[in-house]
Design a protein that fits this description.
The chain is α+β, with helices and mostly antiparallel strands. About 15% of the residues lie in helices and about 30% in strands. Helix 1 crosses helix 2 (about 100-105).
């Protein structure tokens, strides 16, 4: 796709998917942390596991939300995206209670800005794949375009 100053083209046009699996994050078996295609990054459900695969904040929704959103931020950074680039956010919460929504928002304010927050859904679920996990967060981010020199 041609366009932009200097006749460059937008980065990502015609790119193959890039699979992002940082070695510093534990993963649930069978899932890729994120897949980036062009300027769009699709992030799988990030959970409250540390780099060694240990559960952070057993029984503590706030602590788990902080860890899951920190993991999400790391994955986005590796994809050259940031929280402000998130256009769709889905949070899955085990045994969701009405007060949980505010706890989650407070734990990750950069993902819930006052002005122009992403579209999103918070869904109550019965369980997650690993015992003790209380939430998972997935996202879609659209990075700002990068101009590359004309070939």
């Amino acid at each position: 796709m041609e366009g932009g100053p200097g006749g460059g083209r937008f980065a990502g046009a015609g790119e193959e998917p890039r699979y992002i699996n940082p070695g510093t994050l534990a993963a649930l078996p069978g899932f890729t942390h994120a897949v980036k295609v062009g300027l769009v990054t699709y992030v799988s459900g990030e959970v409250a596991l540390d780099s060694m695969g240990h559960l952070v904040g057993p029984g503590n929704l706030r602590a788990q939300a902080r860890q899951a959103f920190a993991n999400l931020a790391l994955v986005l950074d590796l994809a050259k995206a940031r929280p402000a680039d998130v256009t769709k956010l889905t949070v899955y919460v085990v045994n969701l209670a009405p007060g949980d929504v505010e706890v989650i928002r407070e734990a990750a304010p950069s993902f819930f800005p006052q002005r122009n927050p992403p579209s999103g859904t918070i869904i109550g679920i019965a369980a997650l794949p690993n015992p003790g996990l209380l939430l998972a967060v997935d996202a879609v981010a659209v990075s700002r375009g990068e101009l590359l020199p004309r070939e």
